[in-house]
Amino acid sequence: MLHHLINDCLVTVKHENFKTCDQSGFCKRNRLYADTALKSSKWESPYHLERSTIKFNDGILTGIVNKNIINTDQKIRLPLKVAFYESGVARVTVDEEQRQKGQIELRHDAKIRKERYNEAEQWAIVGGTTVSTGAAIDKDSEKGTTKIKYGPESRFDAIIRHSPLGIEFKRDGVTQVKFNERGLLNVEHWRKKIKKKEEPKAEGEEGQTGDAAVVAESDKEAAEDESTWWEESFGGNTDTKPRGPEAVALDISFPGYEYTYGLAEHTSPLALKETRGQKEANKYDDPYRMYNADVFEYEIDSPMTLYGNIPFLQAHKKDSTVGVFWLNGAETWIDVTKSKTSANPLSLGITGETTTNTHWISESGLLDVFVFLGPTPQDVIGAYTELTGTQQLPQHFSIASHQCRWNYVTDEDVKDVDRKFDKNRIPYDVIWLDIEYTDGKKYFTWDSMTFPDPLGMQKQLDEHERKLVYIIDPHIKNEGGYNVVDELKSKDHAVKNKDGNIYEGWCWPGSSHWVDCFSPAARKWWTSLFKYSKFIGTAKNSWLWNDMNEPSVFNGPETTMPKDNIHHGGWEHRDIHNINGMTFINATYDALLARDKEEEKHNVRPFILTRSFFAGSQRLGAMWTGDNQAEWSHLEASIPMVLSMGISGFPFAGADIGGFFGNPDKELLTRWYQAGIWYPFMRAHAHIDTRRREPYLAGEPYTEIIAQAIRLRYSLLPAWYTAFHESHVTGAPIVRPNYYMFPGDEKGFGIDDQLYLGSSGLLAKPVTKADQPGTPVYLGDKEKYYDYFDFWTYQGPGDVALSSPLETIPLLMRGGHIIPRRDRPRRSSGLMKYDPLTLVVVLGESGDAEGTLYLDDGETFDYQEGAYLHRQFKHLGSTSTLMSEDLATPGKKTKEYLKTMEKVRVEKIIVVGAPAAWKGKTEVEVSEEQGGKSAAARKVPLDFHDKEEGKAAWAVVRDPAVQVGSGWKISFA
Amino acid sequence: MKRVVAALVALEYAAQATAASRPRGVGPEFAKFYEGSNTFTCISNPKVNIPFSRVNDDYCDCPDGSDEPGTAACAHLSPLSPHTPADSAASSSVNTTAALPGFYCKNKGHIPSYVPFTNVNDGICDYELCCDGSEEWEGIVKCKDRCDEIGKEWRKHDEARQKAAGNALRKRNELVKEAARLRQQVKDRIQTLGTEIQGSELKVKDLEKELSETQRKEAGKVVSSSGGSKGGKLGQLVEIGRRRTDELRTQLTSVRGDLLASRSRLEKLEEVLSKFHEEYNPNFNDEGVKRAVKAWEDYIASYGVGSTPNSANERDLEEILKEDKENGLDWDNYSEEEEDETAVLYSFTNYLPPTLRDWVDSKLRDLRQTLIDNGILASSPSGSANESKKVTDARNRLDTAKKDLEDHRNNLKDSTEDLGKDFGPDDVFRALKGVCVETDSGEYTYELCFLEKTNQKPKKGGGHTNMGTFTRIEKIVVDEELPSNGKGLGSGERYAMKHENGQHCWNGPNRSTTVILACSEENEIWKIFEEEKCVYRMEVGTPAVCERRKSNGGDSKGKDEL
Question: Where in the cell is it found (chain A) (predicted)?
Fold first, then answer.
């Protein structure tokens, strides 16, 4: 018993603390609705678009959808809007007229809004909503449908079936996405609570006549279960639901698509699993859930919700990707099922195709869906990030190595760790402070006993260009004499409870209140708290960690706020729950910008790490996967999780290296570092009860192996920063899964344990199992790949075997790429700023190669005014020349910046897979343009190494000494 | 240190002739490798020859990095960096261990030193190693020569350190003297004890004689006094026995009742706490709850949960509580039998199940003792029931004398052992035994009592936590930076006192502390650190470990005086 107790409390999530679909009224109702609909062959969806109301103006179609109430003449009017954007995105929005017009009664005299929540877009959407001028109604629409042609070259069709309502999206005449194909559309309209007499009757039932159809009976059945309409209790908390049932649900089918990805963040594999089945069949029995929550000791391979959620899904099949974005901030569940359509039995040899069906269910708010028709993964992600924004281009330090622990207990402790990294010659950039630095968990204060000299601490860090990140959470300690809570209360910036009083709950400090960042005034106030003059002891090199912003409330239902809490504007917490975390970091982001203005060196990009997030959070900072465990299984799960964040528009993601809970053994810690250097956000973190595990404590050979891994990350920072920039511009993932890289390679669609770094051609396969001397790597195309460390040559496609003893990181370079590096080890990334570059030119099948390099000051927004350099390097096999071309768009700060980079040169060019023809060659010719003119050509030495048993030939250009910011050409011919 | 300085200075002079031509960053001891003019031969790869113009051209040519003594170009030649075949110009089979220790800073006015190549031209003035700022020659940052001021400061500190070291050494001498005195004390004690033991042995012999005399004299009386009334007395005894057994049974029943009740309450309580421990929200930072959880965890760690009763004892107890007859003890059968009276009480155990016998025997003794202690039963004289007072007195005197002898012998053993124990060099730690020092760190005060224990005391009050009891002295190698005030471990071999078996940690080991000692004027705790869960490291200064500075250079006269 004791044994059981100890073990279990270390590894198992407390399932009873979190709802299953069955325990979540609206999910249960809609699943039942689906069961009813799918059971009956005669099911007809009761939603009908009234033909006469259809209007199409300036790329927007509007109309009224009538929801027929079974066995009555009553019709619920649901305004429909279908917008077609210039980007080729279609958006379908369904509202409810009665609520829209405020013609409903709120129960319990609740002081809340009557409308369905319609402000999600104010938080999530930042662009891409220019309506299309080219979209037009096609005159050839079939009877009973309205067909709109839109998108690039009008290759897309949206065919709106009027009765029952259904929408079919086609690309090049082929159906890609279908709405309400299975009839699961459900908008729970407002109704008055009828006092029950003996036999409870759902409203709408009265006056029914005898001609009830089967359909009606079924619907009655589905709609009749009133038990969860008015009130729901869970874990000792009762939700008063003043607006009654108000869910929205829709089925979205992807005919011919077997693979779906997205719905981050979950611990499931990258390719989504079916959710209506059994574990044995490798299916889940609950839908993917999205309800941001602090899930203590979460389990892996589960559709349970986690800290953040992005309701964006992609469906993928050979050479085609499409997607949908379900813009809703309320609790949401998504069922995923697959159906096989058997091929026409007469056409032998053609196998049936698999269709993925999804069923989206949200508790409240608008039904608001964006449809992306691809056809490439990048088209879909690009369109999604055009809407919600791309990844913030972070400060350079933040893509280097972070060292965190709950807690570095004193300022001396921090300084000691800082010195020890230097002493052991292990680079790092950022050290973190968890909650213990505060005076009694009162944010914006220091514990004077343990942190008597915070500025001295930050000064020491700054001496080596290092940063401090400290934590600030949204719960404010409810304690007399604490000025922050006094102001929060007196200025009325806190979240309210259902009665309109300041909500009180428990978190780290004990009794607390929560700042309501939906309120502009509260955000403005929040901004003031971060001023250096206000939070004394913070310096310019300090940045932020926002944790617990789901929000985590220890004594709240499902460890969060009651849904009937009230936010600014009279919106219920129910409506905005998933958006809440984003509003908090948004406020902090603004605060950091404001904090900065008073300085000489203004205009610095904020750095914030968040645990909770929503669509759009990527614009503001980085995320991590929360409180994982020091187990191999968690290391393994971190790869698909980080990949999933990448394809969900929020690629600046990572998991705690070493695992938060528990003590990793040295092999696990070492492997975790070797894997962690491939997380875009690379941070080691540990729970307060764990043993210290800074890399220099591991002892040999572990410390040396870990140092090599970290130094590898540092040497590849130019490639990383370039990948971050690409993501910032296009929304592309920073680390990429196989399906994204090779959308036509069906064998790679399910692969989620290896990753490509940006467009660099680097393919890493982290070892995530104990004692693994060999590791297979999957190559998705017919191309040469070279081992990074010894130039061993592999030929794709298919699996190849790499040896992977502990000291080795399986890492390949794909032919055809040019990888920028900085090989000089430094103490921090800031000290590498003016170091020369090494270019690794990896020649593949064609003999051509290309790569890009993006650099800027790594700190400010000056890059927006042209203060950056962006080069494209190209090697042409046919002419044996390598050149550097400008990709930048000059701005007013371009010149000034390039001047600072004048001395930064390319010190070395390594050509892997060098042609045999270069044998015997000892020189290459370098020509460079200087000040807009070509300088005289120079000869520099070339050192050629012939291939030897399995290893590629390689050559080194010795110190071409060309400026990294200028144009140049090297001829190997 | 000074001698190193002197040596370097000497080299500096020696190399002065070539200093002008020595490439940037080359230390005098490597100057000879850089004397060529046209070609340079890599230091550990003599097969690799490069034009001399490639020395310090900011490109790494030599596999051992020796061509770049003044730049960071070869900084990646390190076992800490990832390796690829193209790291240096040579193929992978050659020796790539860096040939040079770093960038040589002349530091005129202070001590020359090497700064790691990774720090060359990185935009940071590494004044700690390179006070002349020469490692930042590229101009990313201007590092002016601060050797005058740093050297001056260093010499000032060094003087203070020397002075402190002198004082410390004097104190150590005092400690050594004190230790010697204490040692002599022990020796004296041993001698005294020897004499005392001899005396005691004689005394014991005498008393043994006295006792046997007395016994002989008194023997007759005892026999006659017990002869006459045997039968009647036995009858009475049986009756008393029966009553007492009944009484005992009743007592036992009630004690057992209490036991069971307590146990079930304990179980209930443990269940409540278990549940509490399982269900409390660990994210919830309620100090009260945390303390309770902690206390519960400590409790489980020490006692386990659900104290499973000894089922054999339980069964036996059941047995005992049955009527005597069922236990095979029929008092009536004994009422007239002729047996030694006292034996009867105990011999009833012969009728008990064998497994039970020992236990009942011991329990009965305990119970009897308890009853006596509580005044329920009267004490009966020890030894034979009817021993005369004179014999008893004689026996008592003998026992006392024997005990004295035993004590003396033990003391002698302890003292002799003590002399053999390791008290460090010159027996010096002997003088520190029991001396306590403490320091505040965060919310605790930490205490070290030399050769005894380490303690953690919460400032807010509450119980002390034992962090380990002294077990032994060891030597360990440390490598720490020495702060300018000299209060730190520095680098090298140090004495370490191991403290083990402190209070148990939940889900962890018993607390233990390694106290690492370095020379200091005073006994003081410099730093306390939890290296891993419940394993502490204390860095402590004490004059006891000070050593004469072998590298004291010209200061030998002062040294001799100490």
Answer: Endoplasmic reticulum
Does residue A771 lie within any of the structural domains? yes
| Positions of A marked active-site | 547, 550, 627
Residue A635 lies in a domain: no
Q: Do A425 and B118 touch (CB under 8 A)?
A: yes
**Which residues in chain B have Cβ-Cβ distances shorter than 8 Å to A712?**
82
* Structural domain range at position A301: 21-192+211-388
B416-446: string of b/e by CB count within 10 Å (b at 16+)?
Answer: eebeeeebbebbbbbbbeebebebebeebbb
Give the tokens for residue B482.
């020495």
CA distance A615 to chain B (A): 27
- Residues of chain B positioned with their CB less than 8 A from the CB of A791: 84-85
Domain count, chain A: 2
Cβ neighbors of B268 (< 8 A, separation 6 or more) are none
Instruction: For residues A739-752, give the mean pLDDT.
Output: 98
Tell me what pLDDT residue A6 has: 38
Res A847: pLDDT: 95
pLDDT at B350: 63
Note down the domain range covering B275.
Answer: 228-373
Residue A872, domain CATH: 2.60.40.1180
User: What is the model's pLDDT at position A7?
Assistant: 40
Q: What pLDDT is attached to residue B233?
A: 64
More confident residue, B311 or B402: B402
B83: which chain A residues are within 8 Å (Cβ-Cβ)? 789
Q: Check if A958 contacts B (Cβ < 8 Å).
A: yes
Closest C-alpha among A506, A538, A576, A604 to residue A859 = A604
Residue B517 lies in a domain: yes
Q: Which tokens is A828 given?
A: 């921090």
Q: What is the CA radius of gyration of chain A?
A: 29
Question: In chain A, which residues have their Cβ closer than 8 Å to the Cβ of B304?
Answer: 2
What mean pLDDT do residues B326-354 have? 59
- Counted across chains A and B, CB pairs separated by less than 8 A come out at 138
Q: Where among B373, B399, B417 does a domain terminate?
A: B373
Min distance B92 CA to chain A CA atoms (Å): 9
Nearest to A956 among B72, B86, B278 (CB): B86
CB A905 within 8 A of CB A966: no
A789 → closest Cβ in B61, B84, B116: B84
Is A949 an 8 Å CB contact of chain B? no
Query: In terms of domains, do B329 and B254 share one?
Result: yes
In a domain, A399, yes or no: no
Q: Does the CB of A911 have a partner CB in chain B at under 8 Å?
A: no
Q: Are residues B445 and B360 part of one domain?
A: no
Split at pLDDT 50, 70, 90, the class of A99 is very high
The ipTM value here is 0.90
pLDDT tens for each residue of A158-167: 999 999 999 9
Last residue of a domain, one of B122, B145, B168: B145
Nearest-Cα distance to chain A for B64, in Å, is 15
The residues in B 196-215 lying below 8 A from A, measured between CB atoms, are none
Q: A554 and B85 in contact by Cβ < 8 A?
A: no
Q: Is A353 exposed, middle or buried (0-12, 13-18, 19+ CB in 10 A)?
A: middle
Contact flag A959-B59 (C-beta cutoff 8 Å): yes
Strand (E) positions, A728-845? 735-736, 755-757, 762-764, 774-779, 784-787, 793-795, 798-803, 811-814, 817-821, 837-842
pLDDT cut 70: percent of chain A above it: 94
At residue B174, φ and ψ (nearest 5 deg) are -60, -45
Q: Into how many domains does chain B fold?
A: 3
Which of A330, A357, A388 terminates a domain? The answer is A388
Whether B477 contacts chain A with CB within 8 A: no
Statement to judge: residues B110 and B243 lie in one domain: no
B315 and B442 assigned to the same domain = no
Nearest chain A residue (CA) to B276: A5
